[in-house]
Amino acid sequence: MNLSRASLGFLGLFFMASAILLIFLTLLGGARNSNPLNQIYFLQADTGNIPGAPATSRWTFWNLCGVTANGRNDCGTTHVDFPFDPPSHRNFDTTENVPHQFIGTNHYFLTSRFMFPFIIIGLFFAVCSLFTGLLAMCTRVASYLSGLLAWIALTFQVITTCLMTAVFVQGRRAFSRNGQVSKLGVKAFAFMWTASALLFLSCLMYCLGGAVGRKDTSGGYSGRKERRRGFFSSQRNGSVKSQKQETSANYA
After folding, report:
1. pLDDT tens digit string along 200-226?
2. How far apart are CA 15 and CA 23, in angstroms?
3. Which of 6, 57, 67, 170 is deepest in the core (most CB within 10 A)?
4. Domain spans of the chain, in order of start
C-alpha cells in the first residue's frame, strides 16, 4: 500500500510526539512526589547499613529519594543534574559500607552528570522537529528538515540512553556484590529505549515523506527531445523527397 506524503508526515509527527512525552516523563521523574513522576527512577538499592542514608535509596535526575510504604519515591529538595556518586557529599557523604567500586573514582560522577545536558540537547531538537513536522505533511523540504532534526535528536538520545545504561547497570552490580539488594528502574529504562526507537521511526517516516511523489524528469526530457527530433527529421525527410520528385520531373 502506497502512503502519501501527508500520511507519512503524520506518522512521523505521531512518533515524534510520543518520544517527546516519554523523554519528558523520564526527565521529570523525581522532580515531584506526584503520580506518575514518583514511580520513575534509575536505580534502587538497599542502603540501610550506610550511616545517614535512607533504608532504600533511589536515584533520579533531580535528587536521591527514599521510598514510601506503597513503593513510591519520597523525594526532598531538587538539584539540577544530580549525580550518581554514593560516597560524595552530594549523596551519602561517607565511605562506610559503600561499595569499593565507588570510592576513589570520578567515573560514576562524570558519566551520570553528562546525561543531563545530552538529554536536554536531544529534547530541544526533538521539539524543533515536532514543529517543523506540521509542515512535513505538505512540503518535501519540511519533510527533509524534520528528518534532519529528528536524526540529531536521535543521536543525543542514544548517547544519553547508553550513558544511563552503562552507569546504572555498573552501579547495580557494585551494590549487589556488596550484599546490598538493588534493581534498575524499569519505567525509566523502558521509556528511554522506547523513545530512541520512536525517534528512529519518526526520522524514517519524515525522510520517506520527502522522497514520495518525486518524478523522474529525465525520462520526460529525453522523450520530448526524441519527439522533437522525430518531428524535424520527418520534415527534413519530406522536403528532401519533394526535391527529388521535382528534379526527376524537370529531367523528364
Report:
1. 999 999 999 888 765 544 444 445 554
2. 12
3. 57
4. 5-211, 223-247
Q: Which residues pair with 57 in a beta bridge?
A: 45
Identity at 35, one-letter amino acid code? N
Distance CA 159, CA 218 (A): 42
Looking at the DSSP bridge assignments, the partners of residue 44 are 58, 183
Spatial contact of 131 and 149, defined as CB atoms under 8 Å apart: no
Distance of alpha carbon 20 from alpha carbon 167, whole angstroms: 23
Could you identify the residue written with the cell 518525486? 214
The cell for 211 is 522522497
CA distance 8 to 19: 17
Q: Is 187 helix (H, G, I), strand (E, B) or coil?
A: helix
Residue 49 near residue 97, CB atoms below 8 Å: yes
pLDDT per residue as tens digits for the range 32-84: 999 999 999 999 999 999 998 999 999 999 999 999 999 999 998 899 999 99
Bridge partners of 45, per DSSP, are 57, 182
Could you say which of 1.20.1600.10, 3.40.50.2300, 1.20.140.150, 3.40.50.920 is the CATH number of the domain covering 5-211? 1.20.140.150
Query: Distances in Å between the alpha carbon of 181 and those of 48, 84, 175, 224, 247?
Result: 11, 17, 7, 76, 110
Quote the strand ranges of 13-157, DSSP E.
43-46, 56-59, 64-67, 73-74
Cα–Cα distances (Å) from 4 to 1, 11, 140, 144, 205, in that order, read 10, 11, 12, 15, 11
Place of cell 542502603: 47
Rounded distance between C-alpha atoms, residue 61 and residue 28, angstroms:
7
Distance CA 121, CA 123 (A): 5
